[in-house]
Predict the structure.
Amino acid sequence: MRLTRPTTARAVALLAVPALALAIGAPAVAETDAPPEGQVVLSLSVEPRDKDEQSGTFYSPHGHATLRVAAEGRAAGQVRVNGEVVPGATAALARGRDAVVDVSQMVEAGENTVEVRLVRGDAYVSVDFPELVDVDPSDVGVDPAVLARIDAAVESRLGLEDTDRYTGAVALVAHRGQVVYEKAFGDAQTHDGADLLAEPRPATVDTIFDMASITKVEATTAAVMRLVDEGRLDLDSRLGVLSQDVGDTAGRSLT
């Protein structure tokens, strides 16, 4: 499982869909041209006088999920989530149209199933990777007083002085797929080239950051964790034991 966070700290594309689904009493459907992808992707194709049945398991940390249907021409079949028919998906197959369906009202927190039975045509059915949702911290057992300490920690290094570390930041804390804290600090832009702006551009929770110099986090850390998990690396081993390419004495003694 992975949580998708496209370009900013907050993926907002689907946040309005659950409210619409509640208002009309059925899964909300929106057309899309995007190709299907996600934690489950089912590809179905039916020959004449035949059928195709497939199923998959998907995970939702908080009981929300989005299903996508991409039909290549008019098709006929049925889509079920946890045994319940998804009307919007079935209608999209019949029309031969791509669609996005909010199925949160059929989904439980934890493991869920999607089943597709196609009797005519070709189609893809997929379930998106989990999205983060907002909750009240106290509702999920997180102490708001503890989260309040984040403000002081971030602001302690915020500013334009030589002793400061950054001019702007966004802090986000998620617990089991649910956002319990999110706040923007400082400015997203303070200079135009070398010139200080008279009115800096404030940071917001939607500010796009340049994710530079993260090789140590994205690659090295993950690789080391895997080697440790496989028993191929001891974190207490010295560099001189692990590699003969470390020339200086001081470097060879490091762990």
